[in-house]
Amino acid sequence: MTKIVVVTSGKGGVGKTTTSAALATGLAQRGHKTTVIDFDVGLRNLDLIMGCERRVVYDLVNVINGDANLKQGLIKDKRVEDLFILPASQTRDKDALTLEGVEKVLEGLKDMGMEYIICDSPAGIEKGALTAAYFADEAVVVTNPEVSSVRDSDRILGILSSKTRKAELGEGDIPASLLLTRYSPERVERGEMLSVEDVKDILAIDLLGVIPESQAVLNASNSGAPVILDSESDAGKAYEDAVARFLGEQRPHRFLTANKKGLFGRLFGAQ
Amino acid sequence: MTVAFEEKAVLEFKGRMLMMTVLLLKDLDPNTLHRQISLRLDDAAQWLRDAPVVVDLAHPEDTDQVGLMAAVDTLRGLGVNLVALARNEHLDSDTAAMLGLGSISLAGGRDVPRSAEPAPAAQAEQPAEPGHTLVIDQPVRSGQQIYSRGDLIVLAPVSTGAELLAEGHIHVYNTLRGRALAGVRGDQSARIFCQKLDAELVSIAGIYRVAEDLPDQHRKQAVHITLDGDAMRFADLK
What we know:
heterodimer; A: alpha/beta; 8-stranded mixed sheet; 8 strands; B: alpha/beta; 5-stranded mixed sheet
């Protein structure tokens, strides 16, 4: 049974691609055969985050158009077994993504025995985002703790409740959960950011995880290794937790409170 | 020395939100129009007869003025309360004036579902359709709009950027962050109830207050809002 998951947000730059990469990698690390697809046609990024940009030959649009078959388009990850990447096209425009074409690709991946297909949605609420979400069985909504991001996520939740295939077939809303990224407990304490509780209250959906604002995320992007592979980092651990919760484990939320500097820290200003 | 005379103001500008019905004509043949409009008016509630109607044309580019005049006459003859013609590049305010209508741009407005004819099954079950209460138990998200011909009850949060419209009362048993417009057909006795008031706008029968003007002591509190003449009254809901 294949589960199609859309990672979406409405707003850009909140961490969709970082999350898609981490979620897909985490699932594959646990032995689930997973493909992550970049739907951001024209603004291809996922291959960079996954560190496979030098191995891209064909892309999603090539596969849809039949220029290449699915096996040729898929890039196998070198670090994690059972992980595949289908990059976006840098040169085509978004109109190249047709629902029929995407459906064909998803069916092909199902036939290959994928357990999870992670769809990395482009920002916005236009055709690209709707196409990425259309076939989803479940949604992960990535939000930053600030009002505009929360409002855009709310908008996308409204759209998900009417514009997916399940909704159109009258099978109801697809389950959606919240992943709060770039969370800084210190800034929440200073009142500069919304708290987890505020965001949960506004969006009224389950909390999948809280990823702390972290240098590790930037390092990971720059080095082309999903942050979840950096298992010593706070963000890596937080994504690990999120993957576990995604698979149904109960884990307490971490990184929600500011680190209190100890006496020495205060005296000497040590890190 | 100059003496300033203060003239008593004889006018006052008021902001008021009004609901209008847009009648989209796809064909101007007077006979067809007469037959179909008569049928609709026979079925429709009184509100459709009284509602101010803006005429919009589906194909303004190939509309001749004579045909348009005939159609407007037909509608007027059936008692439709025509107030304006939708403006576009083919139909300017001169054309509207010639027909004795105002000219309105529909570009800024928003559509509200307005079915004059409820689904046959629903009609059979609920003959009192106009007063029917609509109950929503899912969150109303930003960009979503809910319209109730009667009362509207929402059991989940209403987000900023969402809009509730009801011809009767509005009840929100959760946080109201979006807009709530009760009595949109002019019922001044309509009320708004909510568990936690954090609205962008509340309105009863066209009288409204925006977030900035909400009374501070009622913010984020359970409130009950009523209309007293032109003034909105806020009371604790305890």
